[in-house]
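Please check this one:

***
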Amino acid sequence: MKFDTTKLLIVVAFISIYVIWGSTYLFNKVAVTELPPFFLASIRFSTAGVLMLTIAKLFGYSFKITKNQLKNTAIASFFFLILGNSVFVWSLQFVDSGFAALIASTQPLFVLLILRFLDRKPMQRKSIIGVCLGIFGMYLLISQQELVTSKDTIIGIIVMLGCVLGWSYGGVFVSKANLPKNFFVSTGIQMVIAGFVLAIISATFRENWSFPTTWSSNVQISMLLLIVLGGIVAFTAFNYLLKTVSTEKVATSAYVNPVIALFMGWYFLDENISNQSMIASVILLTGVYFITSRKRR
C-alpha cells in the first residue's frame, strides 16, 4: 500500500492547531500579566519570523516574491497576527484565558457569515441552526452578572469579538490570495512584518521594554513555547491547511481549542468556570458543530 505523505501532513497539521493553539491562551495569559501586550507580541513574532526565514534559507527555499504576493502577505499579517492575535492578547489583561477561548470559538460562525456575504449563497438548514445556537450561546456567555459589573471585561469581550471577525476574514482572504508557495517563507515574512509593525505600536504607546533576562522563569518558558510551538509549528501548520483543505474545516479548531484552554486555565491558573459558562460553551460548540458538519455545495 502506497504511503500518503499529504494525508499524514494534514493530520499532523490539524493536531498542531488543535492542541498547541489551545494551550497558547494559557501561555499568553501568563506572559501578558508581566509584559506589555504589544511588546510581547513584537518579540514573539519577530523572533519566530527570523527563525523561520533562517530555516527556509538553510533548506534552500526561494525567497523570490512578487509585489502582489508581498502585498497579500502584509494583509494576511495584519488580520492574523496584528489584529487577530496581538490585539486579542491585549484583551487577555481583562478576560480569563478559558473564557477568551470560548469567545474565539465563534470563528466558524463569522467565517460562515463572511462567506455568505461574499458568495451570496443561501444558508443550509444546519448552518441556520448553528448560527442561532452560536448567537444564543454567546448571549449566555457574556450576559453573566459578574461580567456585566466589570467595565474592563466588557471592553475586552467587545475587542475580542472584533479580533475574531478580523481573523475569520483573514482565513477567507488567504484561502484565495496569491502568496509565496513555500509556507516557511510565507509565514516567516508575515511574522517579520507583524513584529516590525507591533514594535512601532509598542513604542507609540510607550510600553516598557525589557530584556528576557529580567523576566520571571514562567514568562521565559511561556515565551519560548509561544515562539517555537505557537509561532513556528502551529502557524505554519495553519497556513498549510488553508491552502490544502477548506477554510471551514480549518475553523473546526475553534471547538477543540476552548476545551483545552478551559482545562489548562482551570488547572494552572485556578480560573473559575461558572455553570452558566459551561452551559454556554456546550451550546456554542454544538452550534459550531452544526456549521462545520453541514454538507458542502
